[in-house]
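Exam prep: given the inputs below (a chain plus heme C), describe the expected output before reading on.
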Amino acid sequence: MLARSEKAAQTNAAGASIYAAACASCHESGRPLSFGGVNLGLSTAISSPDPRNLANIVLSGIRSVEGERSPIMPGYAASMNDEQVLALLNYLRARFSDQPAWTDLDKTIADARRRQSAVLQASSGPGPGKASIDPAQRGKP
Ligand code: HEC
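Solution:
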């Protein structure tokens, strides 16, 4: 039991420092949009029973809408490993919601990352335009 709670505290310390380094500058700055983030205490992604949205937001970020003044948030897939994302998400859940910890969060994160790299591969494929994404073209040289 002791080892377990020590481990939990460690994870949370890791999550807290990741949050302070990567997220707080936007989410606690009071800066306006486009780069100012919402107060995470209001985030439905963090209080949701399903962590998939949050995993996707942190890995992929939020893209601006072309031609509009819209929010922008960077994605962290390239700069955080799964363990770091796990610590961060557990920290966010504990700090910004009054909901119980998510179960199987590690699986959700691994899954979100797999999907994300599938998307990246599809859109950076060879050939002009998006032709390579056409299912009819799949498997052809
Ligand atoms: C460059 C500034 C910036 C950084 C850095 C940043 N964010 Fe964001 N974040 C935003 C903006 C802008 C939005 C969109 C706000 C909106 O839609 O009104 C957003 C939205 C979000 C949302 C969605 C809120 C919701 O439920 O609608 C979450 C969750 C979130 N950020 C978490 C994080 C976490 C975790 C980090 C650190 C790993 C982080 N952000 C780093 C700017 C940032």
